[in-house]
Amino acid sequence: MRIPRPEIIESLRDGFPAGCRVELLRMDDPQAPPIGTLGTVVGVDSVGTIHVNWDNGCGLGCAYGEDACRRIDHD
């Protein structure tokens, strides 16, 4: 896995602040929640993983460049 540049990490943190709501679009993991699952962001770590408490109880994060989620609670 390649670590994103610091400005990308900062952009992810700005775009996905703790407490915002997201929808899962893609995750290549056998333990992944179903596509379309909603969740609440816990934070973004130093390698760009968006950590999410998914509504179905799963705690897998969205890895930058591998998985995809979209924010659903902004204007």
Describe the structure.
- The protein has 75 residues and is an alpha+beta fold.
- Helix content is 13%, strand content 29%.
- The protein contains 1 helix and 4 strands.
- The chain has a 4-stranded antiparallel sheet.
- Strand 2 and strand 3 (50-54) form a beta hairpin.
- The longest helix is centred in the first third of the chain and has 10 residues, at 6-15.
- It is globular and about 30 Å long.
- The mean pLDDT is 94.
Per-chain topology:
Blueprint: H1 6-15, E1 21-26, E2 38-44, E3 50-54, E4 68-71
Antiparallel strand pairs: 1-2, 1-4, 2-3
CATH topology: SH3 type barrels
Q: Give the distance, in angstroms, between the N- and C-terminal Cα atoms.
A: 32 Å
Please summarize the sheet with the most strands.
4 strands, antiparallel
Helix/strand-derived class? alpha+beta
CATH domain class: Mainly Beta
What best-fitting shape do the alpha-carbon axes yield? globular
SSE order? HEEEE
Which superfamily, in CATH terms, is the homologous superfamily?
Answer: SH3 Domains
Q: How many separate structural domains?
A: 1
Beta-sheet strand percentage? 25-35%
Task: Estimate the mean pLDDT confidence.
Answer: 94
- CATH architecture assignment: Roll
Number of beta-strand segments? 4
Share of helix among residues?
10-25%
Give unreliable regions as ranges: none
The neighbouring-strand order within the major sheet is 3-2-1-4
User: How many distinct helices?
Assistant: 1
Rg result: 11 Å
What are the main properties of this structure?
75 residues, alpha+beta, SH3 type barrels, 4 strands, globular
